[in-house]
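[audit] Reproducing an earlier prediction to check determinism. Same input, same settings, fresh worker. If the tokens differ from the archived copy the diff job will pick it up downstream; this log only records the rerun itself.
[audit] input (131 residues):
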Amino acid sequence: MQDTINGPAKDKVTVAQPEATRGGAHFTPRVDIFETDRELTLTAELPGVRPEDVDLHYEKGELILRGRMRPRQAGRVLLLNEYEEGDFYRAFSIHESVDATKIEAECKNGVLTVHLPKAEADRPRQINVRG
């Protein structure tokens, strides 16, 4: 993002993508991440992906989402194609301390939802001031 319309562009950060070991299409699913006092919630658009085709891994502050969307319309003539098929990959550095033992995920109606509860020690708390 630029400071002003005519100002110089800031240095761009390039994100390394994993090297592909299979042929075929690879894509990056769209993702939203929300934060509350208690957790981070990630939602990813994965239309047509079955839960068993999703590989979700969390370790040392990094959440890795990868998997495969299998062909959906075998034997049919495709007239319009907006959803991609093939392998997908996303990796996120999570800045919050997450309680890895309580992470939950579900894939329903083409949306993957991942709940990343914050560790109890890192949750904000109200401190009462006595007079």
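[audit] rerun output stored. Observation attached for the diff report: Confidence is low (pLDDT under 50) at residues 1-5.
[audit] end
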